[in-house]
Amino acid sequence: MYTKKNYSFWMTFNWTKEPFLYGLLYSGVIIGLFNFFNLDLTIPWQPIGVIGISVAFYLGFKNNSAYDRTWEARKIYGGIVNDSRSFGAAVVSFPKGDNVDAIKKELIYRQIAWLTTLRHQLRLGRSWEHSEERLNGLYTPTICEDYTRKLDNELTKYLSDQELAQLENKSNRASQILKSQSVRLQELRDQGYFDDFRHMEFHKLLVHLFAGQGKAERIKNFPFPRQYASTALWLTFVFCAFVPFGLLELFKGSIWTETVCMIISATIIWIFFLMEKIGDYSENPFEGTYNDVPITSISRGIEIDLREMINDENIPAPIESENGFLM
């Protein structure tokens, strides 16, 4: 997530400069053919304007839908924050008996392990995401694959060797950790650390955590429908291909007005592709780009809250933004 007040103009332009440069070149070729070969390439602006309005409406639909995915993802993680704090409060207050502090620490650490595993899984690349740009270091941080390599090392801080061995070769480690939490809570119930009522309350909290994970996985694993994403891109290409022909009728006459025609054509092309790209990069709120939900920072905040509830000595520092980017 980008945390500064605004992207600078040059950051925005550098992110989307190719459509402007190609639009400038394309417009120059059209104007060159018009002047040097005396080809009448002008098209009335009215039909082009109708196409432009249609494309703008379609891009608006796409961007609104993409924004809804991002906002829903943030609400899902807000629910995970609430449910994790509720679980931590239950862990602190429910168990009674011998060695209860060690048991509380075990349950809290297992919850942190689940948060860690879940964010790792949500950062894994999908075929429809911008993995190539991320791996090449273009505009997006190379955090997803780094997280994959670091997961096992991070889990050693929270889980026993026996539990780590049980997670090997599991397709969904986060679900397995919640299952282990459920099994452990049943064992504690049988040992008399809390009664049936409190055990059912624990179970309800686990159900909420499973639901939050499932909702996040639904957004992660089901892409924005490709027919809508693809149509928006191709319609933008169609409209932008006609732009120089329509403007040429308005600006033909001298080299200066035709130069202005090139610049305005390139600017219109840039604006439409910018709108298309904003929607494109808002479709996948967990892939790890600058506009995504900062699940690493949110998870760290939850971890701090949970550790403080049990007066843990090893409380990590909050994650700070780096150059305006918060993971």
How would you portray this structure in words?
With 327 residues, this protein is an all-alpha fold. The chain has 12 helices and no strands. Helix 2 crosses helix 10 and helix 3 (45-93) runs antiparallel to helix 10 (226-251). The mean pLDDT is 89.
Characteristics of this structure?
single chain, 327 residues, 72% helix, mainly alpha
Low-confidence region ranges: none
The biggest beta sheet is recorded as: none
- Ends apart, CA distance between termini: 6 Å
Specify the overall morphology.
elongated
Helical segment count: 12
Residues in helix, %: over 70%
Summed over residues and divided by their number, the pLDDT gives a mean of: 89
Rg result: 27 Å
Please state the structural category. mainly alpha
State the total count of DSSP E strands: 0
Beta-sheet strand percentage?
Answer: under 5%
User: What is the string of SSEs from the N terminus onward?
Assistant: HHHHHHHHHHHH
SSE arrangement:
Blueprint: H1 9-15, H2 17-36, H3 45-93, H4 100-123, H5 131-135, H6 144-155, H7 161-167, H8 173-190, H9 196-221, H10 226-251, H11 255-280, H12 295-309
Helix pairs in contact: 2-10, 2-11, 3-4, 3-9, 3-10, 3-11, 3-12, 4-6, 4-8, 4-12, 8-9, 10-11
Summarize the structure.
The protein is an all-alpha fold and 327 residues long. The protein contains twelve helices and no strands.
